[in-house]
Amino acid sequence: MKSVRSMLTVAAAALALAVPLLATTAGPALAASRDGVCDSGEFCYYYNSNQAGSVSDFTGSVSDLGSSQPSCYEFKSAGSGQGVCVKNNAASVWNRTGQTVRVYYNSGFGGASQDFAPGQMANLNATLKNNEASHQFLGGGGGNQAPTDDFDHGTRGFAANNCTAFAAYRIASRLGVPSFSNSYGGVTWGNAGTWDDAAVRVGVRVDTTPTVGAIAVNDVHNLGHVAYVNAVYSDGSFDVEEYNWNTPLGYGTRSHLHVSNAGYDFQHMLHF
């Protein structure tokens, strides 16, 4: 987090740590970036087999597609199935992301599943056709991810719109830990600078190796800072997506950072 902060922001952070809020679940906030066109970097469901019918496009994991209006994710584009909730109604997919995407029978990333490799166009198998409830972008799959501000703005017990709240959202929505919050594992994760210690206490792997999907931790800059690693390069540098660094309480990205003791870099990588 940057050193220049308003008294209001500091007070809000203290209050959030003192009285953790109830975790919020990822919901249709992703809809702001969804237009029914299967663009590069998106995972798309189709109402009919063989990539036919109305399309519903996603840029991240969703733990519950929702089964009723107005809270469900729906098929967006013109064609058969337009306006129908995606949950239990999709027949085929197109994975235009750079990583494997896993579709699940149950909400919360549970039950039978089917994996789709980057670039794959396929029908859902007999178990999952019209019986899919959630999907997960598998972090660490090796493919760099296009940056996108898909934050649902839930706090999960952290200060609103701070780096910790955004990182918590990415852990919950993309890294297969939908229950992640400020009390995950029975410990208080607190300010960003203490996340590496909290991770060790609950058994999350901590090292200095950046991978796509890792949570980068800076524990030398004021209260610390955390960010989501979305790209890694052959020289060991990496890109991050983050909140409340260059843009106060807002989304931003930085490129070709390193693991170092510098205040603008990161010292630890958490691998959920």
Automatic annotation (TrEMBL):
Pfam families: CHAP, Inhibitor_I36. Keywords: Signal. InterPro entries: CHAP_dom (IPR007921), Papain-like_cys_pep_sf (IPR038765). Residues 1-31 form the signal peptide. The keyword Signal applies. Residues 138-272 form the Peptidase C51 domain. This is Surface antigen. It comes from Longispora fulva.
